[in-house]
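Running this now, will post back.
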Amino acid sequence: MPRTTFEGYYTPAQTLEKLGINRKQLENYVNQGKLHRVTPPGRTHGVFAKDEVDDLAHELKAFIAISAAQKEPIRFVKGTPDDMEECAVLVKNIFGVRPNIERRRTWVEKNPDCCYIVKVSDKIVGLVFMLPLTNEKIQEIWNLEHSPPLYADDIQTFEPGKPAHLYILSMGVQPSSTLNRRLWGSRLIAGLMRTIIELGIRGIVIEDILARSEYPDGIELMKHIGFTEVPSATQQRNFIIRVAESGIPQVLEYKVALARSQGKQPPPMPKAPKKYPARTICPECGDLDNPTFTFERIGKSHHYHCSNCGYEAEQ
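Update: finished.
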């Protein structure tokens, strides 16, 4: 049966080949709005506009080139009191408001684990403050349009067994090209999530992680990490991760690390999805939108059958 084609569109199989990605990555791009699936009349599965796919392919190639050319490593490290002046400049560049440098120095002096930065060539290009606050203080912040000043006395310390509420503040990266921001932002998120897992290893009990933002980039970032949006009494949008209920992979890792540090039986991790051969699309019709292209295992070989077009093969 000849492959079905649509003028101006790529089939899923062609899209994967053009972008050099796998099915899961394709679904991520669709969920993020970077690609849009279109279902032609008379077809149950979608195709993708060539212009949109080609533009993304060029962006991915440029991203890979920049990553390969990056001479200096992108480092995620703790911020120190001496970094607060440069951090204040970065916060001003990102949010348009210069914070109180001395006040933030006192935060880091009170709790050295509350500030993390991303550095390239000893220049700070990203930062996040992860402040352990009382639940009452966080609710006070959420109930006001403009956040009240935070002082060293408001900052809690991390102590094994002591419940902690983490408030994410000033999370962002230096305004730059889309590709640079993506590189730095990815390192910032990965480092932050790894830090949370390390708190579990230390026996720190995190009850919830909270944040709020009025900026589109910040809102998208919260959603990307896995925060849940909750009602707000202000123009700001509030987000929360309730650790006990969360199924975010890194939070699950945190819960396992915490249980082990407490000498308890770790909670069960979700089972890994069943693995199939890399060739998981129909070579005839390109179907992959639904799990209709099934695999029947026969010993070490596989029997392929596409329920959309009837294609069958052995491998």
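The first strand starts at residue 9 and ends at 10. More later if anyone needs it.
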